[in-house]
Amino acid sequence: MKSRAFAMTVLMIAAAGVAYPSAQTPAPAQKKAVEKEKKEAPEAADKKINMKNLPPAVKTTVDAESKGATVKGISSEKENGKTVYELETLVNGRTRDLMIDSAGKVYVVEEQLDPAKAPAPVRAAMEAKGKIVVLESVMRNGKTTYEGQVQPAKGKKIVFELNADGTPIKK
Q1: What distances in angstroms separate CA 83 from CA 101, 105, 148, one per listed residue?
Q2: Exposed / middle / buried, residue 4 (Cβ in 10 Å: 0-12, 13-18, 19+)
Q3: Is residue 42 very low, low, confident or very high in pLDDT (cuts 50, 70, 90)?
Q4: Bridge partners of 91?
Q5: High-pLDDT (> 90) share of the chain, %
């Protein structure tokens, strides 16, 4: 989804920048990291897909979940060796993205959220670092967490992944 795509983009940029900072030959460890990234990228790459090409169970879910929404796109990707589907929608001017397994079960819902509607601890943790630029609630298998970006007074944007109590998510 967006956060995964963002992370992949950051990794690709970082790998390219670190591996080839000049015309010098990359160090073996840097070269190995770039080769690993190239091998992982094909599985993580999203492939646009037409509604007519969806498995029946996924199509049923997409039909139900996209009622009253504008469909921005549907894609498939490999996750842990299995094909999953991402439905990107716009509902009342806010993004709403769903991850659907091949059986048609929605297992992740990311919704753009007005910061004022976020739990107070999440808002407080983010606002302590700067102005909230983007905030999404992420429901994964029944548990809600929050992902967002904050623009500090000086410096680059900071990306957050927080639990509802405002504590960072450990990966």
Answers
A1: 7, 13, 27
A2: middle
A3: very low
A4: 94
A5: 67
Q: What's the whole-number mean pLDDT along residues 111-125?
A: 95
Does residue 40 surpass a pLDDT of 60?
Answer: no
* Position 53, amino acid: N
Q: What pTM did the predictor assign?
A: 0.69
CA 53-56-58 angle, to 5 degrees, is 85
- What would the two tokens of residue 56 be? 């029946």
pLDDT at 45: 67
**∠ Cα 160 161 162 (to 5°):** 110
Instruction: Enter the tokens of residue 67.
Output: 């009622």
Euclidean distance between the first and the last CA atom of the chain, given in angstroms as a whole number:
17
Gap between the Cα atoms of 87 and 72, Å rounded: 8
Produce one character per residue of 81-118: b if its CB has 16 or more CB atoms within 10 Å, e if not: eeebbbbbbeeeeebbbbbbbeebebebbbbbbebeeb
